Amino acid sequence: MTYSIAQAAERSGLSIDTLRYYERIGLVDPPARDSGGRRLYSDNDLAWLGFLTKLRTTGMPIRLMREYAQLRHKGSATAGRRKQILFEHRADVRQRIAELHACLEVLDCKITNYAEIEAKMAGQQLIQEASA
Q: Which residues belong to any copy of the HTH merR-type domain (predicted)?
């Protein structure tokens, strides 16, 4: 199946401008073209865009994404380096997740504290209303 650039943008969640940018910087191979010169994206192209989106969402720098994409073109001989890139990036992602968990604990503590303050204030107001 093939998709126009608009359909590929919609399916990938990326903008048309981002698709063109990714093509320009070498993250995405130039897609096939129809007889009118319009880009046609394949299911494989969309799968690659999905992978790139995951890398970007997890904070991989474009520089490393480009290196990975270039190595991908060189085939199996580059599997070791590609694995290393992903391994190192995974470690960075795990560190960020740990940092976010620590931040979440602080937020949870603050929310609990404010809930306790509100409950205490509500209790005091009930006592005041009962004695009035």
A: 2-71
DSSP 114-126: HHHHHHHHHHHHH
- pTM, two decimal places: 0.81
Determine the Cα–Cα distance for residues 116 and 78; give it in Å rounded to an integer.
57
pLDDT digits (tens, 9 = 90+) for 41-93: 999 999 999 999 999 999 999 999 999 999 999 999 999 999 999 999 999 99
Can you give the residue ranges of every domain in the chain? 1-61, 74-132
Map 20-56 to HEC letters: HHHHHCCCCCCCEECCCCCEEEEHHHHHHHHHHHHHH
Angle at 97 between CA 46 and CA 48, to 5 degrees: 10
Distance CA 21, CA 13 (A): 14
1-61 has CATH 1.20.1530.20 classification:
no
Q: What percent of the chain has pLDDT over 70?
A: 99
